[in-house]
Amino acid sequence: MRLAIDVMGGDQGSHAVVEGSARAVIEHPGLELTLFGPRQHIIAELSRLPQPLAAAASRLAVSDAPLSISQASSAAWALRHGQASSMACMLRSLRLGESVAGVSAGNTAALVALARRELGTLKGISRPAISTAIPARYGRRCYLLDLGANVDSPAHRLVDFAVMGAAMAQCVDNVSLPRVALLNVGAEATKGSANVREADRLLREYPDASAFAYQGYAEGGDLFEGKLDVVVCDGFVGNAVLKASEGLTRMLVERVQMAFESRLSGRLASLLAKPVLRYLKQELNPVRYNGASLLGLKGIVVKSHGGTQAEGFYYAIQRAVHEVEHNLPARMAGRWERR
What we know:
Layout: E1 2-6, H1 14-27, E2 32-37, H2 39-47, E3 60-64, H3 75-81, H4 86-95, E4 101-104, H5 108-119, E5 129-135, E6 141-145, H6 155-173, E7 179-183, H7 194-204, E8 213-218, E9 230-232, H8 235-261, H9 264-284, E10 292-295, E11 300-303, H10 310-325, H11 328-337
Parallel strand pairs: 1-2, 1-4, 2-3, 4-11, 6-9, 7-8, 7-9
Antiparallel strand pairs: 5-6, 5-10, 10-11
Helix pairs in contact: 1-10, 3-5, 4-5, 6-7, 6-11, 8-9
């Protein structure tokens, strides 16, 4: 299995991407990666890999792409001037069949625009959506979309998001009838914007009862209750919810640890509770959930958080591998054709 990696564009620089890529091929013996970016720059980063990650270099191919798209660039600029960029070259390798999935920590708007042009969307889907899994109670997870690809979405697009999210839950998590809800400011029928109220009507009248079980409106806290499989919103709301959840999680874990260590008796309790705290950090650490899928494309593209470190980028690659193993675009296309 060969994946394509956009080395440039992340907030932490190329070192985090290269190190995360090296860790991925160490953990997955059948995995090979092509790293897209300035050749000499990438070779220099590979030479700085610590042992035992240096052993991964033989499965990390380098493809020269001299330009990069900055986080400040617009999608329009990327479409006009970004053909030689590491991001565009990475996506082109997917279109040509040289790689089966791509991962980038670069400019989100540029990635969505270029992926849409290079790969195209599945039949019946006008625009891709960004989705990720949110950890919920009882060890479950809930897919939230859109997370920023479509800042302001009309009602019919919110319905598309519901279908794509439900297909994701069915294909990846084997949920037979995903429970889908619309994110709103309350459960009452009169609340929410005109787009949300119209999407609610369309989802209640959706003709394919096997696609999902529509649950009506959900509020922010319902994401974590373990009673929903998919929550739908526009990209502005979804991105704000995701970033707030990540910040709250980090603060809660830190506060719990500080509470144990604040007194002498607390220090003793902290030693006793250390395994539990370690488990809590591992389960709730936003890094583990890094990597958002661009759903609706004809290929697999995963967007890593721009500010992630090497460990986070490793998890984004792992997500891409998981989607390849589930043959996600083909299975999603099959479900979409049954609409």
